[in-house]
Design goal:
TPR_IPO4/5, transport, globular, small GTPase binding, repeat, protein transport
Length: 854
């Protein structure tokens, strides 16, 4: 019998592809990169193109590492879309070439190979590559550094991206892969090579959250390893040790209770680690400890030593001197003239964000913010009991003088804001406005004052409380007119928070508030002007019809209308101004409206969505006599994705509050929406599909049986999305799971016959959805199809159980009852086989399912 022919590349093709890759990675600006990319994409249509790429990566030793790595990265991207449709011969060739290269001499090649391996494992979900696991074990046991490092790198990527694969039954293996790998990973904790210690610990850490039985049963070894690595000379390893203790505290606090004092002492010391990332990871422990409701006495004993550390970490670092350029007054031009406008209903101001007004790290979680969050949590646990330790430190910092001590004063003001909720009563006498020459201190004082706003409002019956609230309000209004742009921004953001908390309590002060806001409107430059729009919009949302009085509108509207008329149709500043009108129009609908080109159609659709959300069923009086229905349907079919995205959002909002308005063209709306779920789901189309999916679900629960004509097609599209969840964003996956559930609830007879094809990915997605009413709808659908076709869920029963266990609490009694019936129904149906299913569940899952008495 002739031996099988091994694939070999053609020299001309190999040379041409290598040349293209070399040009693609060349820094030269002469090369037309887009043309090269088109040529590479053209080559991708050739069936064995990916064979060439793996050959270049693995065997083209005469080529530069950069070219070989580029071939590997292109191969990785190609496989994500093309692998399932490739011939088995080509799949087998690629896999056979990758495994020997796990121990490549060059680490860049090894890590690229590891990335490709994890992509293939992700696609195949652990099956179809029986040679992989033995190859990884052989490399790990080889004592050759390159082979151990390559195998560990590939393993770490599998653990990070698809951890469940190693905790699943694999045909041909006597035990789950995780049982084979865990003992070896523990051994690598003692490796003399830092890279192996880091990768091994990182692998195991990935499993703490899901806590498989293999890890649960070997926690003692894991903890021994953590204590062994606690003082590792490599910062990245110490960071992982801290992360492990934090995760264990969050997931299984009982596991660390026997070692609690030692762990707490360790975390306190590492909270002072010279490496800020290590200190940050350690700092997360204190919030986790409090959330886990571990004994507070142990933590109380530690407070005199812990609080000074946290307070020290809340000061700006020594290399933050660039922040002193915040001495930037309004006479200087804005440095950023192209900021994206914020839609005021999703602004970032708020007490929980610990916004330190550092523009460069606005969304970056750092040691300063984490320490403030920890102080906040401690204040909520211990209340005023922490003040005897904390207040002398705060007062000492506040009393410092001189320019060099500004960071100490700023950290003290930040701390006062952080403990506002937990220590309100004890801090009541200390409330005052910081009028420091340093703008960062004035700006953080705005945030601190805003933190006290809602508690002062609660003291409304107390004359002193009302007096203090007025002081806070006037202090913030004065800061709105500060000459420094950073302080202006902080004051507007803080004032918006107070507006939300105070709501109707602001009504007696509306006149003075509007005068200050419109004074700021006339004073601010372009960048901060957008934040004033935000504050005006929030004010309208907070006081609603109280704003609809001639005296107030005469202050508010003329400057806004003048600004509207002043701006050209191409001016991006129309966006935030229109968004401001969205809120004002809720109290005075005649105030907003105009004709726009495509970009402004998007804003108009968003404005109408805001009206629908704000007015609820009251939107009926605004739209009943308009041709909005026909215009909206046209927008849903527009060629521009951003128009369709906003159109489907409005469709969903109308479905919720005024579904009868869509009724005359209901089927057309549903058909157009369903078409978005099977288009090319990339780029902006993902957001379109997300909104269309959500709108279908909202309509379904309102019009019920009338969605029947599109149920089968939509369910097929949603099942496909869920089966390839890794290729789309989290929001689309969650909305797909919810909408599928709603359709299943309404027409279980149409959905149930096909359920075995999508129950597993559906349940995986449902397990990630937070507890809310939409999730209840989805589970009504899950229970409904199981009742119609119970055998369709048997093969995925473990995943159904895990989805049910994802609930913290089902508040709806009928959903709770239905879920219980499903579980007990399967238990009765399966008889002795139920025990096999139960044994496959992890201890935390069993613990949560016990509430249903199964």
């Amino acid at each position: 019998m002739a031996a099988a022919t091994v694939w070999q590349p053609l020299n001309d093709g190999l040379t041409e592809i290598c040349t293209l890759l070399e040009q693609q990675i060349s820094p030269s600006s002469v090369v037309d990169k887009s043309q090269i990319w088109k040529q590479l994409q053209h080559f991708s249509q050739i069936p064995d193109f990916n064979n060439y790429l793996v050959f270049i990566l693995v065997r083209a030793e005469g080529k530069s590492i950069e070219i070989r790595q580029a071939a590997g990265l292109l191969l990785k991207n190609n496989l994500k879309g093309a692998y399932p449709s490739m011939s088995q011969e080509n799949q087998k060739y690629i896999k056979s070439e990758l495994l020997p290269c796990l121990g490549a001499v060059d680490r860049n090649i090894r890590t690229t190979v590891g990335t490709i391996i994890s992509v293939i494992v992700n696609i195949e979900e652990g099956s179809g590559w029986p040679e992989l696991l033995p190859a990884l074990v052989t490399c790990l046991d080889s004592n050759d550094l390159n082979h151990m490092d390559g195998a560990m790198d590939a393993l770490s990527k599998i653990c990070e991206d698809i951890p469940h694969v190693l905790d699943s039954e694999v045909p041909g293996l006597a035990e789950r892969p995780i049982n084979v790998f865990l003992p070896r990973l523990y051994q690598f904790f003692q490796s003399p090579h830092a890279s192996l210690r880091k990768l091994a610990l990182g692998c195991v850490n990935q499993y703490v959250i899901i806590m498989p039985a293999a890890l649960y049963n070997s926690l003692d070894k894991y903890l021994q390893g953590l204590f062994l690595l606690a003082n590792d000379p490599v910062a990245e390893v110490r960071k992982l040790v801290c992360a492990a203790f934090v995760h264990l505290t969050e997931v299984l606090p009982s596991s660390i209770e026997p070692h609690l004092r030692n762990v707490m002492e360790y975390m306190l010391q590492v909270n002072k680690d010279p490496d800020e990332e290590v200190a940050l990871e350690a700092c997360e422990f204190w919030s986790a400890y409090c959330d886990a409701q571990l004994p507070s006495e142990n933590l109380k004993e530690l407070l005199p030593r812990l609080i000074p550390v946290l307070l020290s970490n809340m000061a700006y670092a020594d290399d933050d001197e660039s922040l002193l350029d915040a001495e930037e007054d309004e006479s200087q031009p804005d440095r950023d003239q192209d900021l994206k406008p914020r839609f005021h209903t999703s602004r970032l101001h708020g007490s929980e964000d610990f916004d330190d007004n550092d523009d460069d790290s606005f969304n970056v979680w750092n040691l300063r913010k984490c320490s403030a969050a920890a102080i906040d949590v401690l204040s909520n646990v211990f209340g005023d009991e922490i003040l005897p330790v904390l207040m002398p430190l705060i007062q000492a910092k506040l009393s410092t003088s001189g320019d060099e001590a500004w960071k100490e004063r700023e950290a003290a003001v930040l701390t006062l804001g952080a403990i506002a909720e937990g220590c309100f009563n004890g801090l009541y006498p200390h409330l005052s406005e910081a009028n420091d020459k340093f703008p960062l201190i004035r700006s953080i004082s705005c945030w601190t004052l805003s933190r006290f706003g809602k508690y002062l409002i609660q003291e409304g019956g107390n004359p002193k409380g009302y007096e203090q609230f007025e002081k806070v309000l006037m202090g913030l209004l004065r800061r709105l007119l500060d000459s420094n742009k950073r302080v202006q921004e902080a004051a507007c953001s803080a004032f918006a928070t107070v507006e939300e908390d105070a709501a109707e309590e602001l009504v007696p002060h509306l006149g003075v508030i509007l005068q200050h806001l419109m004074c700021a409107f006339g004073k601010y430059q372009r960048r901060n002007l957008r934040i004033v729009y935000d504050a005006i919009g929030t004010l309208a949302d907070s006081v609603r019809e109280e704003l609809n009085k001639p005296a107030y509108l005469e202050i508010l509207m003329p400057p806004l209308v003048a600004k509207w008329q002043q701006l050209s149709n191409s001016d991006k500043d129309l966006f935030p101004l229109l968004e401001c009108f969205t809120s004002i129009s809720q109290v005075d609908p005649a105030s907003a409206g105009a004709q726009y080109d495509r970009e402004f159609i998007v804003c108009s659709l968003d404005l109408l969505s805001g009206l629908a959300e704000g007015l609820g069923s009251g939107i009926e009086s605004l739209v009943s006599q308009t041709n909005l229905r026909d215009l909206l349907l046209n927008c849903c079919m527009d060629e521009a994705p951003d128009v369709r995205q906003s159109a489907f959002a409005l469709m969903g909002d109308l479905a919720r509050v005024f579904p009868a308005y869509l009724q005359p063209r209901l089927i057309e709306f549903l058909q157009v929406a369903s078409q978005q779920l099977s288009t090319n789901l990339t780029g902006e189309n993902l957001s379109v599909a997300n909104n269309a999916c959500w709108a279908i679900g909202e309509l379904a629960v309102k019009v019920r049986q009338e969605v029947s004509p599109i149920v089968t097609n939509v369910v097929s599209a949603l099942a496909l999305i869920l089966q390839h969840a890794e290729a789309v964003n989290k929001s689309l996956v969650e909305n797909s799971a919810i909408t599928l559930g709603r359709l299943a609830w309404i027409r279980p007879d149409l959905v149930a016959p096909h359920m075995e094809h999508f129950v597993k990915p559906w349940c995986l997605a449902l397990a990630m959805v937070r507890d809310d009413l939409e999730k209840e709808d989805a589970f009504r659908g899950l229970c409904a199809v199981v009742k119609v076709n119970p055998s369709g869920g048997v093969s995925s029963l473990v995943f159904i159980c895990k989805a049910i266990a994802s609930w913290h609490e089902i508040r709806s009694e009928d959903v709770n009852s239905e879920v219980s019936q499903v579980l007990n129904g399967y238990k009765q149906m399966l008889g002795n086989s139920w025990a096999e299913c139960w044994s496959a569940l992890d201890p935390p899952v069993k613990e949560r399912l016990a509430r249903y008495q199964v």
